[in-house]
């Protein structure tokens, strides 16, 4: 390629050279002697070259002394040969120098990022072409007689070039790491043929340059690299050239700057190794949390043991004379609440029909808001707050750039299909895996073109071009403009190219080359516009961009692409706004794509095993599983209803079963719960707060648990009560309500305030759930105090009349017994359960076991996995699960990520460009350079491919050494920008700088940037039109020349690639690390003069909005749960008359339930995430039901000892809690185990089962024992001779204290 020349007219020098050649003896080797001189036409043996293969005339003549224009041209092209005018000898004519200059321009376009590399490259070919001692380094091996301009001349078609290994290796090393920013690959890979960058050596590099079959070299050059001191194989008189090469970290003699760090490792500053992530917390050489948990366990057990020892000296009896002010306040509070609710209950029971009608009207008014309900299904809106950083960055990105394109993908494999060995003429023996077979590629090509359909929105047949992402022609795309990435794009999706084959001769061997040779070349040189085979095909995709091998094939190791196990086919569609008609067309296209793929998958003749997905797949599958699991939820609620209806009955005799049953009461209780949920949803729909599927699934379950508990407490208390003498039915119901309503108020107010405080969460899904749940619980309490009281009054009237349920006209003769009905559970718990539980030995065992469980859960809590893998959102059996499996197995890199710059940075200044670019003259700590440093530690940075840079490409495009930026020199357009495709562009846009550092002036930057953005060639094929915000392009076409001088991008972006990320933990760490990197870049760029103080660089990719929550979800969860725990303590203290001890015990038990829940989550493989947080907030609410009723019952007991009070509370209130909360929840929860959705199975079945079982265990086992040791000392006596009448115990009698 060094000898490439352009045809020119001959002069008399040719004839002189020919005559001299005939006079001198051929083969003469001596200093100052030439082997060839001047140009003698084209090489007749080369067909279809990329440049005219001009060859020199054989001419053994003395070297010529140069002067004038000849000398100046040599000084410009080959400065290393300059010895001064008239003192410089050379073996090349001025026309040869011009041709050499043009030839070197091709290589400099790739190597100019490193001036010393470009200088060394030019040095080699200057020596071969122009050295005054040419015969000492060049040995002509092949000549041919040709007729040139009517004269028979002998031309050189091949020669040997002798180089010392020191020179060759030095030159190669200076170029070895020069990169192409657009791909992140190495320039050497395009200049080393079949070996690519990985296997390239100095010898292979020179061999490719000297191979005339590469389309660039005009003749064959056999480079002989001779080690120092070796003479074997060196012809007599030959001296291998051993000139000085420049290291890549050296400046060039002409003033060129040292190469950048990205292109030259020697130029890199000494960087300290990255800080390794902190290891696990350790104490004394072991897990620190384990040590803390053990110490806490020992502390609690020792404290409990000391308490037992001290308590032996304290009498357990209560001294009635010790009545504190707090006790009196408690009694007053209970008396006030009891009388208030008694009056209220009597009023409601006296007018049941009016109350029911009024309640129905209120609920109906609220429920009408459901007409305006909005159901949020977009995961971004669910889990990312509008004012969160990720959402703001997403909105900024989508404002200035198009939204992230929609991805539709196929990953195909052919398991069990045998591969084959292909003996390539150019690349040697290569193993091709079973998936890389021509028949399979042909099938894949046919599959690509099948998708078309009738679109009602477009009123015509729609195809891919109507919705595709077309980066280089977005305004009017054709099918070949669509961004479709696959292996077939190496053949431009053309079956003719895939079938192409040709015979080719290489080193005297002739073989057939076909698609396999082209594939091998393209995966190693994806930016090539022409391969090195005689096929001469481009590697670029039909839409004008490169297809990097990691986007075309997968499942390979160490860049062994021919052994890939999978083919990857990706369709990219425009991501239109949802209100854009084209959005529907895109959805239709994706649905047709899924239908065709699924049909193809069912075809028995298909040879592929594959996985697939469309952009719509995630949302479709979630919606599908939601609709499929609705019957499961309905069955769950039906089971709960049947249980409530059966369990509420009294069943005093067989004849009265239909009278004493509570089917309608149970149905009424369910309706109350349903109405409260409808009222809550309707109210928030009125005020514009959207709902979600989580609210529809969780809130009814939560309110049902709370409501069922209150229903059981109220109904069972009514059944256990006996109407007093002279008391009406309504008065009895009022009195019973006065007994239990304060307890119901305590729980409902605690839970409602708990959820209202939970609405302070920044997560939209958690916030809306908390709001809906808080109002639903409050409405449930209000409806229970009104509608359910009225309903119970009607049912009591029916029961008193001995009328059967459902058939009220039928009466039963057997009358209702006039004695309290304690049911089945209360006697069992009083007679057996409570005595066993509160036995001295049992109490100690219970305390020790629960303390151990609490400490173990603390240890496990610190090891819970944070995150939510996207596979869990899919139902079992979903095709998306197979896709995720293939994705993690076969993809070698992860998703692209953009480093986006905001306004306020001056890209037009030299300092601004230096702070961004990575080529020669750029800052060693520029934006792209810092990203490059990060990719060197992918296991820490989670970045695999460095960022491409439109600034670097713009600089390369402006480089005078390239053919990209030229100006018209003829016609009316003289002085205007001239496209690279035109042939009348004789003037460069900017002059070549002496130091090789191309930096446009501000005027040049603003003048040529718009031309650069709309030019499709000379941009390495990447989507530079989307690298700068569309606002820049609009200014380009809408402003005057004066306005364009002020042009500044409002936003730019630089695309890199993450490593392959397989779980939410890796996605979260990737977000964290890229933000750290972006912050570091921001701080550096703000130091550039003229940068705005609010300028920022931030990373963006489509997944960040989902995973940002996991950066803060632990403190967010602690904050929300703490807010929920606060009202449980405060309300308990207030409603029990400032009873701090009861409030603290109540709070401690709920904390234990929450901690133990998280601990068992760790054991059962339930990750901590926003869905789990919602359930944990729910757990606090349900725990209140398990705990607070029992705590209040203990506090109001008039028994003399803690144990007796605990027994009474366990028997009376514990039985109601067991029947109302535990036994209501469990049947419904167990039904959820049959749901198809993994989210429901894990976060609703498993987690709610844990919450219910732990709540039951702590409320019915641990809490009675805890109260028996540490419960409040207060009682209901006034310290003299009588006890107050406790609203909770109306049958209490006066007694005298002795």
From TrEMBL:
This is SSD domain-containing protein. Pfam families: NPC1_MLD (PF22314), NPC1_N (PF16414), Sterol-sensing (PF12349). It is found in: Endomembrane system. It comes from Gadus morhua (Atlantic cod). NCBIfam families: 2A060601. GO terms for cellular component: endomembrane system; plasma membrane. GO terms for biological process: cholesterol homeostasis; cholesterol transport; intestinal cholesterol absorption; lipid metabolic process. PROSITE patterns: SSD (PS50156). The keyword Membrane applies. The keyword Ribonucleoprotein does not apply. Belongs to the patched family.
